[in-house]
Specification:
The chain is α+β, with helices and mostly antiparallel strands. The chain contains 15 helices and 28 strands. Strands 10, 11, 14, 15, 16, 17, 18, 19, 20 and 21 form a ten-stranded mixed beta sheet that branches. Strands 3-7-6-5-4 form a five-stranded mixed beta sheet, with helices on one face. The two termini are 53 Å apart.
């Protein structure tokens, strides 16, 4: 691993600083890259990381003043890079401050699913916490030295940053010495891809036309002024704002020109226009007119049905199951038009990612639901969530469209889910599950393991054996959320408990998030399946609120009724009917109506979920 060298020197001057920067350039750029937010996109993040390091040396006079008392050029450069990277992470850098690359886009190579998970969990942290994590994990500083280094870099919240960095999921970063030694997070080892060549040519023509028009206007204005026609400006025609219905034209439909392999934003914007009727102007116009008129538009819960002010992106136009189908994307929503009934369905897709934009329900009939898969989906399979031990079966696809998938059984004896695998250009061995609850986008299913398996700060893909068993127990509860605009659902085993009869119980919180931001949470004790609380319009069981307390009454095989209570990881004491009990779980005979509360390691107190 290339870490910064710490070479003491009697005197440190500009020459030593420049030498330290050049010698440690790859390590410094990687450090900046890890601190900068992933929201910049891979191309811009690579450029920004190089820009931070290349601007680390101020002018000579200012540098000489700053070096007073310095004994290590390498340490000085690292602190400067940390300070500038944290500051830049809080303020999006103007393009003029970035190194300029023309005609190419830069991407660090794709890694395994663990690398993707690591990047996701770090994206949720503050820049200061990412800096602290990088100093400890990459630079191999002690926690105390890392905190001192952050303070020396001008970061006031050093203690909070160290604490937040310590809470990063150990299971996600356990293999950090592997991925970070490779080129996954290395902005000095990148692959090049061309920008959109067709769009570049179109922009060149547009610039030429604009320049010509501006020159003509300047010439006309000069002639008008010379002739003394001051009234010309007042007589300029006023163009009335046309209604939305007239603005949406099939000729203006946007079509993605960027290959999904070469973009840092892998979502609906990377979908190419597909289907045998993408050139059918009459069909496209009819679909746009239906959206603009608004008379035959159905909106999924939490979605505005109003047509966009500008022509949307075309995702698909073709014949499916004997009907013409058109898919649009306006940046925040997708819309599906079918000439079978002349209706258009609109659903939110803001903040969609590689999983939540992987498939779209394109046709529904008595045979089931067909899905159109994103171009980065390399493999589609079908499994029954009620049968976790049954292997995934093949789901035939043709031109990206799957065979019909039957809905869940009315008695919930079977529940189909699509198991998809991303292309290795996205992430190696990245498989995930989605299931259909109505609307247009299926629900992404995830899982968080019990505390006995180590810290878990973020959901994992629900493809492991334990995850499948967990969803087999809870999936029937999703029936109540059909057509509610659910984006993702997560099963979190937040506590385990040995019951009075010697068996073990698992407390599972099922958290479902909607596209509009609301959420539902319900807790059950398994294997008995006892309801232990629920809540709606809440952050409970999400990454924003992982402090949970639940209770339920449980009858032992001998007939004794117990009050069972369990809290999540930070619960260190339970209070039942005024009695303090150390720990996070308790089983007391009787007392099923006694009030229960939990004390957290932070000093706060929480109450159980309502039943």
């Amino acid at each position: 691993m290339h870490t910064l060298e710490r070479v003491a020197a009697v005197e440190v001057g500009p020459a030593e600083v420049e030498a330290a920067l050049l010698e440690n350039y790859p390590a410094l750029v990687r450090l900046a890259y890890l601190v900068l937010p992933s929201a910049l996109g891979r191309h811009r993040r690579v450029l920004a990381a190089h820009g931070v390091v290349q601007r680390a040396m101020p002018d000579r006079r200012k540098l000489e003043r700053q070096l007073a008392g310095e004994t290590s050029a390498a340490a000085y450069v690292r602190r400067k890079v940390l300070h500038d990277a944290v500051r830049q992470a809080h303020t999006r850098p103007p393009l003029r401050l970035l190194p300029q690359v023309w005609g190419f886009r830069l991407f660090p190579r794709s890694g395994a699913a663990d690398d993707l998970a690591l990047d996701q969990v770090m994206a949720a942290c503050t820049p200061e916490a990412r800096a602290a994590w990088a100093l400890v994990r990459i630079e191999h500083l002690s926690v105390g030295d890392a905190e001192s280094e952050l303070r020396a870099a001008g970061i006031d919240s050093a203690t909070a940053a160290i604490k937040e960095a310590a809470e990063l999921d150990e299971s996600a970063v356990a293999g950090v010495s592997g991925p970070l030694d490779a080129q996954v997070f290395d902005p000095c080892a990148v692959r090049l891809a061309p920008t959109d060549l067709m769009r570049r040519k179109a922009r060149g023509r547009a610039v030429a036309i604009i320049v010509t028009v501006l020159l003509a206007l300047v010439l006309l204005a000069s002639l008008a002024l010379t002739a003394g026609r001051k009234e010309t400006a007042q007589a300029a025609p006023v163009v009335a704002q046309q209604p939305v219905a007239e603005q949406l034209s099939a000729d203006d439909l946007q079509r993605s020109r960027v290959l999904w392999q070469d973009t840092a934003r892998v979502d609906f914007t990377a979908w190419p226009a597909r289907g045998g009727r993408i050139g059918d102007r009459e069909l496209l116009s009819r679909a746009l007119r239906t959206w603009s008129d608004g008379t035959s538009v159905t909106a999924v819960a939490g979605t505005s049905p109003v047509a966009p002010a500008e022509a949307p992106q075309l995702l698909y136009a073709g014949d499916v199951d004997g009907a013409a189908v058109v898919l649009f994307h306006d940046g925040q929503r997708i819309a599906r038009y079918s000439d079978r009934d002349g209706k258009l369905v609109v659903a939110r897709t803001d903040d969609a990612d590689v999983t939540t934009s992987a498939v779209v329900a394109i046709s529904e009939n008595a045979d089931g639901v067909r899905f159109l898969a994103a171009p980065w989906v390399a493999e589609t399979g079908l499994r029954d969530l009620k049968k976790p031990d049954t292997p995934t079966g093949k789901l035939p696809t043709a031109d990206g469209i799957t065979a019909p998938v039957k809905p869940p059984a009315a008695d919930c004896s079977s529940w189909p889910a699509l198991q998809l695998r991303s292309s290795e250009a996205i992430a190696e061995k990245h498989a995930f599950l989605v299931t259909y609850l109505g609307g247009l986008s299926p629900v992404h299913l995830t899982y968080m393991p019990p505390p006995s398996l180590g810290p878990a700060r973020f959901p994992r893909e629900a493809t492991s054996g334990a995850a499948l068993v967990s969803w087999a127990r809870t999936v029937c509860g999703l029936q109540a959320l059909e057509n509610k605009g659910v984006k993702a659902a997560n099963n979190w085993t937040f506590a385990e408990q040995r019951l009075p009869d010697g068996t073990y119980g698992a407390w599972v919180c099922t958290r479902s998030d909607s596209w509009s931001g609301g959420g539902w949470a319900s807790v059950k004790l398994f294997p008995a399946g006892l309801a232990a609380g629920q809540a709606s319009n809440t952050a409970i069981c999400s990454r924003f609120d992982q402090n949970v307390l639940a209770t339920t009454a449980w009858r032992s095989p001998t007939g004794t009724t117990y009050l069972l209570a369990a809290g999540s990881r930070k619960v260190d004491r339970l209070t039942v009917g005024g009695q303090n009990i150390p720990g996070s779980v308790v089983a007391l005979p009787g007392k099923v109506t006694s009030p229960v509360s939990a004390h957290l390691t932070t000093g706060d107190t929480i109450r159980p979920l309502m039943k």
